[in-house]
Amino acid sequence: MTTESREIVKRGKRTSEPFQTDKLKSSIVAACLSVQAPIRQAELVAESVCHHVIAWLESRPEVTSDDVRRIAAKHLTIHHPDAAYLYEQQPVTI
Amino acid sequence: MAQSHTFDFDLIVIGSGAGGSAAAAIAAREGKRVAIVEADTFGGDSPNWGDVPTSALLHAAHLFDDARNASRFGLRTTTLGYNYPSIRAWKEVAVKRTGAGGNKKFYEGQGITAIQGRAHFLSPNEITVNRHHFSARSFLIATGSSWIVPEIPGIQDVPYLTPRTILEAIKPPKSLIVFGGDSYGVEIAQLMAIFGTKVTIIEKSSRLLPHQDAEVGELMERLLKDKGVEVLTHTRVLSTQQEALAKRVLITRGNEERTIKADEILIALGRTPNVDLGLDNASVAYTAKGIETNQFLQTSTKHIYAAGDVLGQTETKRNSTYSALLESRVSAHNMFHKASIAPDYGAAPEVIFTSPEIAQVGLTEDDCKKRDISINKAVAPLNIIARSNTSDFRDGFVKLITDKKGVLLGGTIIAPGAGEAIHEVALAIKLGLTASQLADTPHAFLSWSEAVRVAASRLS
Asked: Is B280 in contact with A59 (Cβ distance < 8 A)?
């Protein structure tokens, strides 16, 4: 089973959607760039975080967006704490 | 009028081990619609990978060891041997006899819907298992714990065993390095040493069994050394490395670094609660040390309870199958009855199934020191009672602790059958008896329990 076949369950009556690695990667890169990280570093960090999230999703066919955000933030904190803070606050700031 | 919700079940129990199965059975007996979800093997750790198979293997090992050393009683033992695949087959028989081990039908027969898969909370009243969504009015989280893998350089590149996987070994390894000298490490070390493995135990504390009183660890260290086990206390592992078929471990002891090699490594450094099941989605408060509950085992989300190893350990509670079963029963009661009860761990015995057995109940001397409790203590060595003469066994003792009024607070027994003898001490502690009352209780001549009476009489 590929990670793209993992479902992200949405709150309320919204339909679930497949997990998209590119979407996660873009949001991590955006968070890193927002705290002035160089573009190449942002991409490398995003790849590492995506790798961990995908590994975590291996045994979980359905999770929530909050789960993905929490796991991504946990690993992003190791690489770039400032970006992780911003990434965690993203739903509030947008 | 408040809107009434309909749920698939009255109770969903996540985890079918000791922490979950008792509650599921109680709720089902009371006519509730119950489901139990298991991510691994039905029955959980105790019957499949923990107490039961380990105890079965230890039973065979101790029989073998006793027989091997029985020439002093006039028995001929020169042709004694063992067949490890047959010993493993015996272990499987013992697991099968539990009924629950790996048996989904055991639960279905009780009217419980048994679901195989990993549960993940989507919301406080809904979980997903294999893409199927299930809702319930109440939940019990009993996901247990997993073996800790330490952050040691090189450990991810070296195949290692845990107390779970070593039970499945085709044959005992020629040599074994055990990381951790607590109860699991000591049990497996003795088991493997009896079957001829050259065992080295690495423990960072100053003694084996650091959660027991000092004399327990010291005696066990001497007994293991008699069996050829090398015990390295005050020792830390710096790195591990694969070298051809062997494993090389760099350790530091004192200010000295050295390398030891063995065929296998066993990691028995304790367990960590399994809390990765979307608890945030259910607003259940938790830390890496376990799920937080009130004294009635209710989590921060009031319809979700937790029991067993997933709660982690506290000063008053040590994780054991007994504690998990107690918490499971207490949770089931609190979920469906108005008057809540709290689990009482005060007289919960702990047994380490080595030879001789080690059993402890209530407070240890170290516990009393930490709590600044004034105590009296007495130790009765086994060699002063008649049974030690007729069985030709002298290593062991009974240690009792009382408060200044003579009320029993704790007891430790190292003796053959200590796991049985400890229960009279447990009963005495639960009923608040004094050492004098215990000493006045008749004890049969030539029983190991005579040492309990002797220790109690020294405190009377």
From this structure: no
SS (H, E, C) B338-392: CCCCCCCCCCCCEEECCCCEEEEEECCHHHHHHCCCCEEEEEEEHHHCHHHHHCC
Closest-CA residue in chain B for A8? B122
Q: Write the CB contacts of B277 (distance below 8 Å, at least 6 apart in sequence).
A: B14, B118, B119, B120, B121, B141, B143
Long-range own/partner contacts, residues B389-398 (CB < 8 A, 24 or more apart): B390/B446, B391/B416, B392/B72, B392/B73, B393/B356, B395/B219, B395/B222, B395/B223, B395/B356, B396/B219, B396/B356, B396/B451, B397/B215, B397/B219, B397/B451, B398/B451, B398/B452, B398/B454, B398/B455
How many other C-beta atoms are found inside a 10 Å radius of the C-beta of residue B93? 10
Say yes or no for a CB contact (<8 Å) between B122 and A60. Answer: no
Contact call for residues B424 and B441 (beta carbons, < 8 A): yes
**Which residues of chain A from 46 to 75 reach within 8 Å of chain B, CB to CB?**
59-64, 66-67, 70
Of all residues in chain A, the one with the smallest CA distance to B133 is A62
Q: Closest partner residue to A62 among B123, B128, B280, by Cβ?
A: B128
Using a CB–CB cutoff of 8 Å, tell me whether A88 touches chain B.
Answer: no
Chain A closest-CA separation from residue B130 CA (Å): 6
Could B280 and A63 be called an inter-chain contact, meaning their C-beta atoms sit closer than 8 Å?
A: no
Q: Which helix (H) or strand (E) holds A42?
A: helix A39-57
> Any chain B CB within 8 A of the CB of A18?
no
Distance CA B16, CA B112 (A): 11
> Smallest Cα–Cα separation from B200: which of B159, B165, B167, B246?
B246
Nearest to A87 by CA among A23, A9, A22, A29: A29
Interstrand relation of B175-179 and B264-267 (parallel, antiparallel or unpaired): parallel
Burial class from Cβ neighbours inside 10 Å (0-12, 13-18, 19+) for residue B458 reads middle
Cα–Cα distance, B28 to B13 (Å, whole number)? 11
> Do A60 and B120 make contact, defined as CB atoms within 8 angstroms?
yes
Interface predicted TM-score (ipTM): 0.81
A16 Cα to chain B: minimum distance (Å) = 11
A63-77 confidence digits (pLDDT tens): 999 999 999 999 999
Instruction: Judge: A70–B118 Cβ closer than 8 Å, yes or no.
Output: no
CA B409, CA B438: separation in Å to the nearest integer?
Answer: 13
| Cα dihedral across residues B384, B388, B393, B399: positive or negative | negative
- Picking from B121, B123, B128, B132 by the largest number of A CB atoms within 10 A of its own CB, the best residue to mutate is B128
Averaged pLDDT, groups of 10, chain B, 460 residues long? 76 96 96 96 91 95 94 89 95 88 86 96 95 96 95 93 93 96 95 96 95 94 95 96 94 93 96 95 96 96 96 79 94 95 90 96 93 96 96 96 96 97 96 97 96 95
Closest residue to A7, CB basis, from B123, B131, B281: B131
Using CB atoms, pick whichever of A59, A61, A64 lies closest to residue B281. A64
- pTM of this prediction? 0.89
